[in-house]
Amino acid sequence: MDKTVQKQFKRVVVTGGAGFIGANYVHYALSAHPDWQIVVLDKLTYAGNLENLEAVLHRIEFIQGDIANPADARKALQGADAVLNFAAESHVDRSLLDARAFVRTNIEGTLVLLEAARQAGVRRFLQVSTDEVYGDLSGTDRHSLETDPFRPRSPYAASKAGAEHLVLAYGISHGLDVVITRGSNTYGPYQYPEKIIPLFITNALEDKPLPIYGDGSAVRDYMHALDHAAGIDLVLHRGAAGEAYNLGAREQVSGVQVAEAILAALGKPATLKKFVADRPGHDYRYSVDPSKAEALGWVRRYSFSRGLAETIEWYVQNPSWWQRVRAKKEHQSLMQTWYGQR
Ligand code: NAD
Ligand code: TYD
Description:
alpha/beta, Rossmann fold, 7-stranded parallel sheet, two-stranded parallel sheet, 42% helix, globular, binds nicotinamide-adenine-dinucleotide, binds thymidine-5'-diphosphate, EC 4.2.1.46, dTDP-glucose 4,6-dehydratase, dTDP_Gluc_deHydtase
């Protein structure tokens, strides 16, 4: 597609909009496209939280439902001209404990949504995917390109890779207009405190140890949620049908560096760092080359240091949000089952 050609949408369905990146996208989209009608379809699993949308609930339509349920998908997509599929089971460690929900939501749910999109005649389907489909780059200084083969290594990554294959197949077999984003590790406000950054910030705020897997040298390319949202929005409007776009921040930050930066920012002692048993099958390096999205005009606003400082401040300012989440059974049980023996 020509760089100057921009698709226009009016009624847009955001699945998983009550989760972390989905909610950040809804906030971003409402300010970038104030005339949009946004429908959020979200099952409100342990990771979904209507508080994430509290400030904008009067401006959107919210449907509590399951993307893997055809009736829910059909209802949400009625009259829609675009769908952005954020809904997923998203945590690698949970996929190691039990992968069934990952297959059901990430693969079957994507299939149900694609079918509903085809029947509703939507003009564009955007699949929010991940750089984890490329697998581990450790031992190399390469950056994954969109043309690289998939080598997923965790059940989570495998389920996201499976979903992508279905999305691309629907583009080819049924002529559905599909685009895919492959985002890197994301952080920012409203992130459920199981991923490393919000887990470490909230543990540090409670003077609890920060569990660093293995030797803490695994690196990730951390990207702020609003930069991720802007990249997704750009691909929705300007991406070429049938294409995938990497979104990453060109950062390489290790687990130890994350822990040390958070402890330093909060004035907590280095003794809170705790090296624990490694994650099985731990991918030690992800890194994407985001040139293709940059060529569409994607510009990031956050460096890791600024983004992390603002994110820490958000958790400091919103203790009731994360204290409520951490008090719930789903969180306590992950802490017990996953970290109890480490
Ligand atoms: P999250 O776990 O915070 O939120 C997921 C949301 O999806 C929740 O609101 C949940 O209620 C909803 N959901 C789950 N199953 C559902 C179902 N069957 N039907 C409807 N809604 C359902 O996830 P996130 O971190 O915001 O990730 C959003 C998307 O971005 C996912 O597709 C994920 O694979 C992808 N992604 C995440 C990251 C990251 O670092 N978090 C990086 C790259 C890509
Ligand atoms: P995570 O936030 O779970 O994202 P992903 O595995 O999807 O990339 O983990 C990011 C990195 O942090 C990864 O190298 C594993 C590491 N990590 C820890 O060291 N301790 C933890 O408690 C968690 C959750 C992650």
